[in-house]
Specification:
Helix content is about 35%, strand content about 20%. The chain is an alpha/beta fold. Helix 1 runs parallel beside helix 6. The longest helix is centred in the first third of the chain and has 15 residues.
């Protein structure tokens, strides 16, 4: 059994990227894993100050919701990030969270596999490429971690628009095999 932490970075309730995240969660649970789902909606995650105090103390000086999320990420075996694609990039909410995860860098983190789930109005296969590349830069900072897969749901705009989109099943299957 693995500890799977899924972080949804969509500001919208019932969003398409969140649907992917929930489907991944179902698959991971079916495979016998322990799954925790966190939505950044309603959370306070302030910008990193670049002070690097966390490199010495293992904890950020800013006291907000990122601190608790960081502790959960530290202990998870698998990280899953779900985000809408805005202007061919991950949401600002997710980028801000990743920037705040500096306390993980010198730590004995547990995660080895990192997955990426995304949705966008644009249907082109290349649409999530920049966001995946950005996440890849974050992953490269963690020697034991690797990018383990992604699912993209294109051609969706309104929240919950296509509950039968093939990407929903792909996300569930990816969760089963994580």
């Amino acid at each position: 059994m693995k500890k799977v932490l899924i972080i949804s970075a969509s500001p919208r309730k019932n969003s398409n990227s969140e649907s992917l995240a929930l489907s991944f969660a179902e698959g991971a649970k079916e495979a016998g894993n322990e799954v925790e789902f966190i939505s950044l909606r309603g959370k306070t995650v302030n910008f990193c100050r670049g002070c690097f105090s966390c490199q010495k103390t293992g904890r950020c000086v800013i006291r907000d919701d990122a601190d608790e999320i960081c502790q959960k990420m530290l202990n998870a075996n698998i990280l899953v990030f779900a985000t809408p694609i805005y202007y061919y990039e991950m949401s600002g909410q997710l980028k801000t969270l990743l920037d705040r995860m500096n306390p993980l860098y010198p730590s004995d983190y547990a995660f080895t596999d990192v997955y990426f789930l995304s949705s966008a109005t644009d249907e082109e296969e290349r649409t999530p490429a920049r966001a995946i590349n950005g996440l890849g830069g974050w992953i490269e900072c963690f020697e034991r971690a690797k990018f383990s897969g992604s699912v993209f749901m294109g051609g969706v705009t309104e929240a919950g628009e296509k509950p039968d989109h093939p990407a929903i099943g792909e996300a569930r299957e990816l969760g089963r095999n994580c």
